[in-house]
Amino acid sequence: MTGEKPRRYRLDVSAQFYPIISTPRSQSLFRFAAELDAPVDAATLQMATADALTRFPTFRVRLKMGYAWYFFEENSAPVPVVESDGKLLAPLRPKDTAGYPFRMAYRGNTVEFEVFHAVADGMSAMEFFKAVLLRYAVLCGRSEDADAVIREPSDEEEAEDAFRRYYRPIRLGDVDLKSLMGAPPFLLPGTVSKEGYSATHYTVRTADLLAAAKAKSASLTAFIGGVIAYTVCRYAAPKRPIAVMVPVNLRKMFPSRTMRNFVNFVRLVFRPKDCDSLDACVSSAAVQLREKATKEEMEKFFATTVRAEKSLVLSIAPLWFKIFMARLCRPVLKSRQTMIFSNIGKVDLPADCGVKRVVFNLNVSKNAKVNLGAVTLGDETTFAFTRSIYETDFEDEFVKVLRGLSVPLGASGTDIAPGETLAPLAAEV
Questions:
Q1: Any residues with CB less than 8 A from the CB of 329 and at least 6 apart, and which?
Q2: What digits encode the pLDDT tens for the residues 287-318?
Q3: Pairwise CA distance, residues 94 & 121, whole Å
Q4: Residue 180 to residue 309: CA distance in whole angstroms
Q5: Reduced to 3 states, what is the DSSP secondary structure of residue 278?
Q6: Which residue range forms the structural domain that includes residue 91?
Q7: What CATH number is associated with residue 123?
Q8: Do 65 and 189 sit in the same domain of this protein?
Q9: CA–CA separation, 30 vs 125, rounded Å?
Q10: Is 153 among the domain residues?
Q11: Interior angle at CA 163, CA 32 and CA 384, nearest 5
Q12: What number of other Cβ atoms are within 10 A of residue 23's Cβ?
């Protein structure tokens, strides 16, 4: 109806802080890249993206400034789909994305989808990206019914803030804040690149990877967490504890179909003196995950974020003041992790849609210099190392460790981001 005000969406609890801490050089972005078996047709990809946006309205938004907080507003602008310039996780500019909090691009046979974390977590962003890829396959005549999800009506529960839904008031004394924040960890050495971020991805047979984890009596997450810690100790001789942050999909513990953010982090901490063997590191990771990745602990930790957002001080403080304080405090705040490891898990895509591989890149920074993303398609798992430094020592040693366990990783490709400082994802005033 003409004259209707655009729908507004309150940012979910965790998303509130992403635009506040963004800077001209750094945004909380992540990227999925899908390698197809044929060159990408730009016009068809644009149509597929537009159709997916109709089905998933939480992505059909632009960021706006309110008095105390940012919010999302319905975006009716045509969605741009552009040829990739090769930059990796470069900050989004509203004028280039028509205000959308993501960038959809293509290069040769590859579709690139870069997302601002305020709009979605990795799980929900992958659901949207899958819808785009499946719709693209149908529009290309490769499949007749692969995009069935597009034809389903949108679900109001998909727009919910599940953090607020499951929030239960807690006392600060019920939360182990020391464990939550932790002591300053060891930070990987390396020379921060002036040319921008770079990444390398490797593939491995999923069966080989799972067999190696099973041999250590560990889940895949515990296994890789232990390998990361052991790798750091092998090549870097750390003096501080190694902290590996692992996101946990809360939808499994707290049922929700939300397409927004609904993850929490487990902080796996390894003392260097306890990392004399891979078995010790993997065992430690497994024990920590059993103790920390429980429904009770997750509820406590995400409740602290909800409680902070509900506090009187943050409720009444104007947004400009929150941004000012975030920028002022940034130089004195240190990274709370050595590395992030995030595993999207298995992506279900039919073989006839033409997707050969999916790569998942996490954002990095001057402190968190290397992060690791993983995703499985078919019988193949792809690891992607994203780094802000020139050196590849960590990933080289990581590959050696896995190959020593009869898990052969093959290098699949490299992405280099030219250095250019872009404007941050700013809200439209």
A1: none
A2: 999 999 999 888 888 888 787 777 767 778 88
A3: 20
A4: 17
A5: helix
A6: 8-145
A7: 3.30.559.10
A8: no
A9: 10
A10: no
A11: 20
A12: 11
